[in-house]
Amino acid sequence: MTTLRTKIAMGIYSSVATVMTPLVKYHLAKRITRGKEHPTRYTEKLGHASLAKPKEKLMWIHGASVGESLSMLPLLETFHKLQPDLKFLVTTGTATSARLMEERLPAYAMHQFVPLDLPLAIERFLKTWRPDIALIIESELWPNMIFRTKSHGIPLILLNGRMSQKSAKSWTRASFFIRDLLKQFDLILAQSSTDARRFSELGAPHVKKQSNLKFAAAPLTYNQDHFEELSSSIGARPVWFASSTHRGEEAFLAEAHEKLKSKFPNLLCIIAPRHPERGPEILNEFQGKDLTVSLRSEGTDIIEDTSIYLADTLGELGLFYALSPVVIIGGSLLRKGGQNLLEPARQNCAIICGPEMQNFEEICNEMVDNHAVVKLSEPEDITEQLEVLLSDKSFQQRLAQKAAAYVKDRGQEINAVAGEILQKLPS
What we know:
This protein is α/β, with parallel strands linked by helices. The chain has helices spanning 4-19, 21-33, 66-82, 95-104, 119-129, 143-151, 165-171, 175-182, 193-201, 224-234, 249-260, 279-285, 317-323, 342-346, 361-369, 382-391, 393-410, 414-422; strands spanning 58-62, 87-92, 109-113, 133-137, 156-161, 187-190, 207-209, 239-245, 268-273, 293-295, 308-310, 326-329, 350-353, 374-375.
């Protein structure tokens, strides 16, 4: 039962959203001119379908962006094995994730952009697609989407649920609202015991801890020809890779690289920014340093005096994990919460992360306990730790083997997760 205060709050929220709809449309049009929205499919964000609804039973799965959408793929495969006649509608919000889904979704699944949290857009979407069950991945708690999905009698599950300490604290300021919002879920499968506890403390009645979906993901793919070409260019040079870095981290890591070159003169650093379009901005930050930088987006080769290879391209992390035995986790050095530890673990990398791993807190703690990752106490320790790993091949290999074993052991639980979700599917 939704409380009166929540009904009033939702009434105000929905009214404001409705009034703002013309401005939202104008904003979408502006983004199209800047190349930030799909030129023809943007109407999907207003609830208009660009594909036909399948006749079979339909499961709607929503994830915000690239990471969430990729984590769905092994789950889709498992669902299909357990119930072959079930079809899937996958929604995401970003153009990048849409491109990846177009490439990687199986024939029994389709992609649409998620509608914006506007009453008319959500209603139009739900009436068009009429899903038999809805899954939301991680932390996409949009009020209109959740309340209106439930009002249509659609079973609603939060999968791989994540609730950061910061978000939980913020929600306590509107405890009545988050309690009623979480009550709309028939089941919340939290990705860690810490997340499960936070959901329960906020008032969610149906919470269980599950295995994190990211454990079941396949190793990242890469182009073998590109691998052989870059391997030949690198040769026997020692190399380390900073993956999915955030603004400010690149300059910090470049300074560490400069210090390391005194001991490893031919050392190569590969940096892949979380947002590849920042390549020119990062290159400008490196001006004035005694470093030769090559940009992958410009087709620049790795040559003998290349010191930093800036991998400002999309979808090639697997390639650089395969090339580098030592990996730094981006977003973990300067208060961003960290990126995925499991992807490099699958590719036998020795992993270092900074102190800011809140987004993968439980996984990181378990890997530390299993001696499967080196977690820095301070970002400034990065140079010393890199020197240790680059100098000690035996330690490097042991760390990589421990990481690979950890992720393999935890990836076997997806069948139980899929089976529990299918129990909620109406017969």
